[in-house]
Amino acid sequence: MLVLTAIFTVFLIERASPHTHFNTKNNTGQLNKRGCALSGTHQALCAKSGHQLVCTRGINTDWITGIRYEIGHLKIVDWPGLSTELTRFKGHFASTSRIEKLSIHGLTSLWEVPADMVSKMSHLRVLDLRGNVLRHLKAPTLRGPQNLEKVYLSDNKWDCSDGGLDWLAMEDENSATRRIIVDYYQLVCHQQLYRGKPLHKVMDIIKMVRHTCPKPCACAMTHVVTDRAGGIIPLITVDCANKRLISPPTTLPPSATTLRLEGNKLNSIRPLVQEPQYRKLMDLYLDNNSIHAVKELEGSEWFTTFRVLSLRGNFLKQIPVYAFDKAFQANNNIMGVFLGQNPWRCDCHFIPRFQALLLKYKRIIRDLSDIRCSKSDDKTISQVQISTMPLGNVCSRPEVKSVPISSINIVNLVLSFLIFVIVGKFLYDWHHFRTTGKLPWISSILP
Ligand SMILES: *[C@@H]1O[C@H](CO)[C@@H](O)[C@H](O)[C@H]1NC(C)=O
Ligand SMILES: *[C@@H]1O[C@H](CO)[C@@H](O)[C@H](O)[C@H]1NC(C)=O
């Protein structure tokens, strides 16, 4: 299975101790049966000097069939076959291997080696993997070989962000595994987030985040920035979504910038905007909680510095519009506010001011189409989008429109009827007096 086909591949298997007698067969260490299929080739050129054999373009047929047990140091340069390149080393060295030093260099496609490639090699003392494109390494590679003394790993493409090296981050500084990595402080992260950052610093951060992440949340680094002094500042997302929390976690990792609390049972925003441990949060996601009011935002310092606030899917009926306006104006960081899926109260007292706010900050308030009046029997406002709703729907509507008959209206009707009757009677009496000269009956009985 092991097909070494890279151009300029250098594959070096060396037995370090020159004093060992080379009288064992299989002394180049066997790859397991699925492992190396060393096929002879006549183009190959092998040169032996002492106990060292250097082969170019494969292994000469003579050496495959010949007296290979004499070889203590096998160096294979420029393996043949150009169509595919070695990207993964498959198989592993057997426990009977007597190899003391293993070097694999210059494989420009080799990004992964199996966890147990060397772990059973009880004689292995030196493992040199410099100059490949390895991205991660499994713990057993370094913990397995009992007599491993030195490991060289620099000049690879280490990926510090995919979790493949997290085990190394959690190693104690003085642990055996950490100490055998000779060039630990020269290692550099290459992929994504940490491109160009010193690996040891990134490992320290990963360890710190692991130790400070509150339960039951998960913490992840989403960005890193470099400060003026060259220090690395991680930007950490603390994800506590859907954990049935009734209050936010009481502690956060230092430099946590995002807190996700969607789908919990929080009913207040108060601790988040008032307690100091949350002050550095930039982005706060509170979707699908049970928040009825956000009065606490008024006057809070956090509200003038935050970046994202999502309150979708809560029980908000109204907000302190003036406080929102003031904070949005003062806040230079603000990127997004989400207020949709709340049962907004649609009346003439709240809606004109709220609609003006929505329109004034339509670039900031990102989900205008979801900000709608609560469900109600009044079809002109029920679940109508507030930002585009005619204000006439809630203000100064014509009275004829199915105004419910209240008791005060009944009294009004009766009173106006009575006035009408009295004025009518007066006009009738006056006309009657002018034509007949008779006083109305009421005047005749009055004294
Ligand atoms: C060499 O290795 C093969 C396969 O692992 C094994 O069958 C054979 O017995 C070994 N020979 C010696 C002398 O160890
Ligand atoms: C909130 O709940 C709604 C409805 O259950 C769901 O569709 C939505 O994805 C949830 N939002 C988040 C951020 O979990």
For the biggest β-sheet, the strand order reads 2-3-4-1-5-6-7
Query: What is the average of the pLDDT values?
Result: 82
Annotation, overall tally of beta strands: 13
What small ligands are held by the chains? 2-acetamido-2-deoxy-beta-D-glucopyranose
Q: What summary fits the major beta sheet?
A: 7 strands, mixed
CATH structural architecture of the largest domain: Alpha-Beta Horseshoe
CATH topology of the largest domain: Leucine-rich repeat, LRR (right-handed beta-alpha superhelix)
Overall CATH class of the largest domain = Alpha Beta
Q: Provide the number of structural domains.
A: 2
Strand content: 5-15%
Classify the secondary structure makeup into a structural class.
Answer: alpha/beta
Which bin fits the share of residues in helices?
10-25%
Task: For the record, give the distance between the C-alpha atoms at the N and C termini, rounded to a whole number.
Answer: 132 Å
Q: Which series of helices and strands comes N to C?
A: EEEHEEEHEHHHEEEHEEHEHHH
What is the radius of gyration? 41 Å
How many H/I helices?
10
CATH superfamily of the largest domain: Ribonuclease Inhibitor
Low-confidence spans: 1-38
Keywords: Leucine-rich repeat, Membrane, Repeat, Signal, Transmembrane, Transmembrane helix
Pfam family, one: LRR_8
InterPro entries: Leu-rich_rpt, LRR_dom_sf, LRR_TM_domain-containing
Protein name: Protein singed wings 2
